[in-house]
Amino acid sequence: MDYQLNTRLNGNIAMTSSYHERASLQRDKTLYKFIWVQSGTLTLEIDHIPMRLEKDEIVTLTPLHHLEVKEVDGEYLTFVFNSNFYCIYGHDNLQWIPFLWLFQGDETGTFCRAVFQLA
Predict the structure, then answer these.
(1) Given the DSSP bridges, would you call strands 96-102 and 67-81 parallel, antiparallel or unpaired?
(2) 50-75: b (≥16 Cβ within 10 Å) or e
(3) Could you give the C-alpha distances from 85 to 6, 50, 82, 106, 108, in angstroms and in order?
(4) pTM of model > 0.85
(5) Cα separation of 16 and 119, whole Å?
(6) 27 phi and psi, to 5 degrees?
(7) Which residues contact 70 (CB under 8 A, 6 or more apart)?
(8) How far is residue 113 CA from its own chain's centroid?
(9) pLDDT of 63-105, one tens digit each?
């Protein structure tokens, strides 16, 4: 599952179940990240420190963190966005305002939904 939105103000938001295969997202050093393990385990290296996440665990990372996905043994979702997506400082002519609804998923693993409202 991959969803991505780029705004005209260089805002970027994406949700993917295959971050470990998405080289373009891994190369982008401006992204904030939420990683949620839905089933099984996920082995990461964050700032050169190994970390193993299990079902229903979430880790949050800033653009300053160095992240490597070492092993995927299950399913996970990664939600990423840059500061241009959520920050309206300096964007006085903004035509819409992003809202994010985060909610616990149902059996299909729904994690989040982005809704855009006209200003």
Answers:
(1) unpaired
(2) eeebeeeeebebeeeeebebeebeeb
(3) 8, 30, 6, 27, 27
(4) no
(5) 28
(6) -75, -25
(7) 43, 44, 45, 50
(8) 12
(9) 999 999 999 999 999 999 998 887 655 545 544 444 444 444 4
